[in-house]
Amino acid sequence: MSKGKKGKAGLPLVYKPVGFALGWASGALAGVVFRKAWKAIRHEDNAPDALDKDRGWGEIVLAAAVQGALFAVARSVADRAGAKAIERSTGVWPATTKGGRD
After folding, report:
1. 1-19 pLDDT, tens digit each
2. Average pLDDT across the chain, whole number
3. Contact 75, 23 (CB under 8 A)
4. pTM of the prediction?
5. In Å, how far are 5, 9, 16, 33, 43 from 20, measured between CA atoms?
6. Where in the chain are the domains?
């Protein structure tokens, strides 16, 4: 295997720590955005937890849906931005196969 091919084959492994850092940062940002969104939607400082006895099903499901959507968007934006940055800097797309992350 030539040096160039070996470097390209190892790129997804090198991208993993970058992807991890971006995922962590996007999750933290999504958490902040969720808290602000919940405060704007319900005018409450704390979103309901699934085990909060004093909250109804509607509140629990609404909070989970908003939080899930924000985390999915943040994760996708971070993954795409990281992959594009790797591609611009190396000329190689960091994923070895098409399809989802998991």
Report:
1. 444 444 555 666 777 888 8
2. 83
3. yes
4. 0.73
5. 24, 19, 6, 20, 33
6. 46-92
